[in-house]
Amino acid sequence: MYRHCLDRRTPTSREHVMDQLDPPACCGDGPPVTGIDRRAVLLGAALGAGALAGLAVPGRASAAPVIYHPFAAYPVTGTWQDHLNRGSLGGVDFGMPVGTRLPACGAGTVQNIPYNGTGGHTVTIHHADGYRSQYMHLSQFLLGNGATVSSGTVVGLSGGAAGAPGSGSSTGPHLHWHMIDPAGVRINPLAYLGQQPGRLPKTSTEYDGIPGTIFYQRMQNWLRLTAGYVGPIDGVPGPNTYAALQRAMRAYGYTGPIDGQPGPNTWRAVQRLASGHGYTGPIDGVMGPNSWRGFARFLNQDRWD
Questions:
Q1: Residue 136: beta bridge partners?
Q2: By the 8 A CB rule, do 283 and 203 touch?
Q3: Rounded to 5 degrees, what angle do the CA atoms 259, 260, 262 make?
């Protein structure tokens, strides 16, 4: 079981922003990744799409999506079979507090359906290949109809409190997730993914050197298990995540404040950790692709799933 509390986005102080930049090639941490920062793309997509409005029927994204499991760290409170047993067409329920941020499980376009019968407020993500993903019992929509989203873009906030607006027939806070195939048949997203509930997927940062949603989910889960982090496993690091990181980095020589605003000393300690997992660059406090790869190899250990 997991405790959850508000964990805001990464602070935007000058020092923190500078900490996120790739080093110059001369720093010995490999060539910088140019042009694309995954977190910036996701944030930009969320901010840009959030301004969209209207009732246009959403179109389809232009590329086939990669679906992932955004809710792997939350307990399953209702299985697919549980739903079938009580006459539902199927779904999987994840216990989480009202107001939990809900990342898109894959790229697509958004359709909001307010007061959708027993499902209450429902977000449908239309994927490029004709599949749809639906989240039910939301407390709040965050994007307009027709908004184009990337995988990991937050599309709404969870709800489900009995009798609350948008909860439908829910009797307690949770998220209901199911998918619909191109033939219109509701399908189990966990079966589609071939995953078991409660286990996080591995991060691709180990190979591409670019930290993203799954990377930060794994980091948060590691910190939950080892460093007292009690926020959501949502892949959106904020002050609580980074304060826990700083506590964990005491074991790697960090002696600075536990203030949730990582600077070069925090990242030097992270590089020392990464050096035990294939990182061979300088301990200079400037994270780049090779630093992230080494850190990701550590986070991809089965014990942090």
A1: 176
A2: no
A3: 100
CA 191 to chain centre: 20
Query: Token pair 């980095």 is at which residue?
Result: 249
Strands (E), the chain: 76-78, 92-95, 101-103, 108-113, 122-126, 132-136, 138-141, 148-149, 154-158, 174-180, 186-187
Q: Is the pTM of this model over 0.70?
A: no
DSSP 11: P
Number of C-alpha atoms within 13 angstroms, CB side, residue 188? 15
Mean residue pLDDT of the chain comes to 80
- Spell out a b/e string for 123-144, using b for 16 or more CB atoms within 10 Å of the CB, else e: bbbbbbeebbbbbbbbbebbbb
Q: Is the pLDDT of residue 21 over 60?
A: no
The string of pLDDT tens digits covering residues 193-215 is: 764 445 678 888 999 899 998 99
Q: Please tell me whether residue 273 adopts helix, strand or coil conformation.
A: helix
Q: What's the rounded Cα separation, in Å, for the pair 11 and 153?
A: 18
β-strand 148-149 against 154-158: which pairing, if any? unpaired
Q: What is the β-pairing status of strands 122-126 and 92-95?
A: unpaired
Strand order in the sheet with 138-141: 101-103, 154-158, 138-141
Look up residue 78 and give its two tokens.
């209702």
